[in-house]
Amino acid sequence: LFVNASGASAKKIPDTLFGIFFEEINHAGSGGLWAELVRNRGFESGGSFMPSIIEPWAIIGNDSSVIVSTDLSSCFDRNKVALRVEVLCDNGGANICPDGGVGVYNPGFWGMNIEQGKRYKLVFYVRSEEPINLSVALTGSNGLNKLATTTVVAANASDWTKVLVLLEAEGTDSNSRLELRSTTKGVIWFDQVSLMPLDTYNGHGFRKDLFGMLKDLKPPFIRFPGGCFVEGADLRNAFRWKETIGPWEERPGHYGDVWGYWTDDGLGHFEFLQLAEDLGALPVWVFNNGISHNNQVDTSSILPFVQDILEGLEFARGAPNSRWGSVRASMGHPEPFDLRYVAIGNEDCGKPHYPGNYLKFYSAVKEAYPDIKIISNCDGSSKALDHPADLYDFHIYSSASFVFSSASHFNGAPRSGPKAFISEYAVTGGDARDGTLLAALAEAGFLIGVEKNSDVIEMASYAPLFVNNNDRRWTPDAIVFTSSQVYGTPSYWMQHLFKESNGATLLSSTLQANTSNSLIASAITWRNETDNNEYLRIKVVNFGNSTVTLNISISGLENSLQSSGAIKTILTSSNVMDENSFTDPKKVSPVKTMLTKVSKNMDVVLLPYSLTS
Ligand code: AHR
């Protein structure tokens, strides 16, 4: 491998190159990054149809002690469903209640993770004609083993009353549930029951361990809130930003019909922008352009949708006294968010109304916000786009060999005009299973090709980011979690070896003609912000099953190359199909060793199926 560090051939890599893509898929947000512990907090999973779907809420008691139903009596106009609990038993009467009383419990998202010493904020709305005497508890999954209890008493709650309780856990159980019980005959209505840990990132509602996994990747951008999630199978189930802002109690929630689950939309448009800010990442907002999987808005009727998006941009960027900027300010963020990128739809190129709708959104957004970069869904890597755009979206999901060989895909892309945003890449299928070393190496090879073509590629992100292991809707994913555990797949760890590339200098590097075509390599120099020193990083993927001794020859760094102290990082494993797991979370993860001697001409041993850096 010849590395030439002399100035002329070096190129600056975009600061934005390797970021992340968050989609509400696999309970990434609802039951994941968003720390809300109650699932279906408004009892309306499935909408305001009667009878409403209350699962996973379940009844404590039997037919002779309690009747649980729903009606439309909520005090919240946009989510009218309330839970009606008719307590038939009474500890003061003949029909004695079962031990502890009757009522309902919520097991959260496959168990609530309650941790000893931590505090949890419980909020719910309640109404009853009779005085209320409720016992509230966090318990183990079978209702035994109480971790926190309290009593809520209200002499008069004949109008809807908000109750706020702080619960401190006296024990730990990752499979806990929340119980609301009574032993007094009468009817009680409940609505909007929320249980949030106080200990979230910056108090912003993000589960700390999952947030940390993202922060560690140092992403320069975050694309959100999804791909298909934004489109919806049906337009009425698409993500609508306005339905996800303001007080959480008033948000209607919606059914994400592509990934098949309800979300209360606690993680809404504001929280996504806040997440980007907390990560130090630029937000990239993908919005619905009037097109879903099964239906489309005709371009002649698209203007209200365009107006809605302009208002969403004003919400993000408008002055705090503007109409929508003031709503943002009222949510605690008077400063505008740094929104500089939007994508008009997801995977909609080729659909009949895309060209017309696209142009309407494009011209309205450009006129109102000329600096915002607009991403088209149409692939401009093979031929120039026939419409204006700042970036074009490119998705690649395929076998390991195809993804690896696609490292050269952008060699032939147009060198002028819109740049590429590879907003979704991953090896899928049998090569990847739930996340193999093989997949990660193929993706690493692809990303080396992305680095080399970063004059025409501005951004790239793996997909999907998260999966709650209890409800896989798509595999593989970068980060796997349950209520209390988390690990990164090899593809997650592979991305760590690319995070220094953002804003780095790409050096010219050439593999000798006789080197096996299962090798791919790149070289960068980058400045470490901590010590302000400049470092050289060479990455090589050996995608073959034999050990290779690679001779590396470096020119142009003669005066600055230090002969010792360099670090060699290897991502490999004994079997190329190895995966990580909760029991062995770092089986396939980068291992660092010291390089004893560095010189301008050296041999480096590359293990079979490895990424060496
Ligand atoms: O990443 C999963 C899905 O793949 C995305 O929602 C969609 O854009 C693509 O088809």
From TrEMBL:
Domain (Alpha-L-arabinofuranosidase C-terminal): residue spans on this chain: 423-610
Keyword set, alphabetical order: Hydrolase, Signal
Translocase as UniProt keyword: no
EC number(s) on file: 3.2.1.55
Class of the enzyme per the UniProt entry, highest EC level: hydrolase
Superkingdom, taxonomy of origin: Eukaryota
Pfam families: Alpha-L-AF_C, ASD1_dom
Catalysed reaction, written as an equation: Hydrolysis of terminal non-reducing alpha-L-arabinofuranoside residues in alpha-L-arabinosides
Family assignment from sequence similarity: Belongs to the glycosyl hydrolase 51 family.
Protein known as: non-reducing end alpha-L-arabinofuranosidase
Native organism: Datura stramonium (Jimsonweed)
Gene that encodes it: ASD1_2
